[in-house]
Write a structure and sequence with these properties.
Pfam families: DSBA. It comes from Purpureocillium lavendulum. GO terms for molecular function: glutathione peroxidase activity; glutathione transferase activity. Strand 3 and strand 4 form a beta hairpin. 50% of the residues lie in helices and 10% in strands. The protein has a four-stranded mixed beta sheet with strand order 2-1-3-4, with helices on both faces. Helix 1 runs antiparallel to helix 7, helix 3 packs across helix 10 and helix 7 crosses helix 8. By secondary structure, it is an alpha+beta fold. It is built from eleven helices and four strands; from the N terminus they run E-H-H-E-H-H-H-H-H-H-H-H-E-E-H.
């Protein structure tokens, strides 16, 4: 059993994209052992929301109230502790610039570089004092801080300059990837398109559908179980 692929469409301005990314990143080796390929796709959430007619949580008071409980639970479950919701999220959510940089990195570097950069951008966006990536200096400084698993810098100073300069050439790539997500039915992020070994594909929305995703892929996983007092697994 097993096999297939997971295509995850996400934006750094989406908290639950952060959650899904960390979850998938921590399971890449196990998924690969099951024959499952994972690919991350940078998309502009603002464009998806507008085109799909969806509304951000802060425009829906009931949803915003619920997220005050759900967001901390989701982040804690993935071990993400240094985070907060920025007061100026609407301003910071103009993430086209870092998303274009990610597209260039994806096209020019091995997947590990994309993964490390995504993680660095997520951390800087959601950790106080919250990076404003509409400022080129802030984005360049963050790219210079990206490190691999050994702690070594991923990009030299010259490479950071090249990535910053290449962003304009990635406008169409970002638009096309965002349009692809919309074609697949996306109305938010993370939007996860999962194709099993038989070639059957299904969409999944959010960061808490991995049990359903693994069922669709036909791979084994450990699910939540209720135990009687004193019982042992």
């Amino acid at each position: 059993m097993g096999g297939g692929r997971i295509d995850c469409y996400l934006d750094i301005a989406s908290l639950f994209s952060y959650v899904a990314f960390v979850d998938l990143l921590g399971n890449l080796d196990k998924l690969a052992a099951n024959g499952v390929e994972v690919e991350f796709h940078p998309v502009f959430l603002g464009g998806i929301m507008q085109a799909s007619g969806n509304k951000p949580p802060w425009m829906l008071p009931a949803k915003l109230k619920y997220l005050r409980y759900d967001s901390p639970r989701a982040m804690a479950a993935r071990g993400i502790t240094n985070w907060a919701s920025p007061a100026n999220l609407f301003e910071l959510a103009r993430t086209q610039s870092p998303l274009r940089a990610l597209h260039h990195i994806k096209a020019s570097y091995p997947p590990a570089a994309l993964h490390a950069t995504f993680l660095a951008l997520f951390r800087r966006f959601w950790a106080p004092p919250h990076a404003n990536f509409t400022d080129d200096a802030v984005l360049a400084a963050t790219l210079a801080e990206v490190v691999d698993a050994s702690g070594a810098r991923v990009f030299s100073d010259d490479e950071v300059k090249a990535i910053m300069g290449a962003r304009d050439g990635m406008k169409d790539s970002l638009k096309a990837e965002t349009a692809k997500a919309l074609d697949l039915g996306a109305f938010g992020a993370p939007w996860i398109w999962v194709t099993n070994k038989a070639g059957k594909a299904q969409p999944f929305f959010g960061s808490d559908r991995f049990g359903q995703i693994y069922n669709h892929l036909g791979i084994e996983y450990q699910d939540v179980q209720v135990l009687v007092p004193g019982a042992k697994l």
